[in-house]
Amino acid sequence: MRQASHPPDTPQSLVERIKTWGQALGFQQIGITDTDLSQVEPLLLDWLARGHHGEMDYMARYGVKRARPAELVPGTLSVISARMDYLPESRATLHERLADPAGAFISRYALGRDYHKVLRQRLQRLADRLAAHIGPFGYRVFVDSAPVMEKPLAEKAGLGWIGKHSNLVNPRAGSWFFLGEIYTDLKLPPDRPMRDHCGRCRACLDACPTGAIVAPYQVDGRRCISYLTIELKGSIPEQLRPLIGNRIYGCDDCQLVCPWNRFAQLTAESDFRPRHGLDTATLIALFTWDEPTFLARTEGSAIRRLGHERWLRNLAVALGNAPPSPEVWAALQSRAQHPSPLVREHVAWALTRVG
Fold it and tell me: Sign of torsion, CA 229 230 231 233?
């Protein structure tokens, strides 16, 4: 039995308190939903059956538990969904960075501190604040760290709609934001979902460099640059390498062209601002990093999970797509005898491109 320290709130007034506390902690929006994901469960199973998850075996490991919150965390009755803006620079600047073939383009979510840590700490503080108000309750915090369908939950919680590129879109904030959840045993009144506003627009489909958005609302992860540069452990398929351009960690193209992102706000979080000049670094400069340098300059960053070997693999591909020059040739030659067969293979491919 929970022991409240003062007269209890109504369920709706408690939700309003949660939203107020969440905004004070730096979240731009908080929404509430129930645990029923029965409408999206078949979509998940179909996506897996098509093999669109590629080598991301963890997507299939838990089966339907991903779409059944109460099976993942028994006793879950409601989900508190939160979003936090992360865009560090203007869209004009983003376009300039991406258009520079000698520059290294890193998906903007990864330029600062690891978002998992930032959001998890804030959500924990939100849960602590709620516990201080109502007494102990059952909950678990998630930030892209377990079999959680965060975008369908956020969509049901009224934070936006899932766009044709599979990202969540908010009509007042675009899509440049992170999501996190608190699974809880509290029975909270849910928010109303938002209707889809993509309409006839297909800008994201047309802009995808590798054609990974195979149909509206369908992404073949095996072709997605984010998958190829982050999730894929081995060799990047040769036919896709020229399409990657200068993108060495992730890809933001579908967000860059989304018309709703004209409403996106720059982040106020210092943790999400670029570190070590990664927003303006050149391919050649990053290719010179040895492993200790890579580990030191990616400490506390989501990029570190990549590892130095795949970091060099991705940079070799990007250098192979760069305008040929003596400097590019020399940089690639410096890694031609690298101990890693994976690095050597991609360097050799790049050398045939710039030679």
Answer: positive
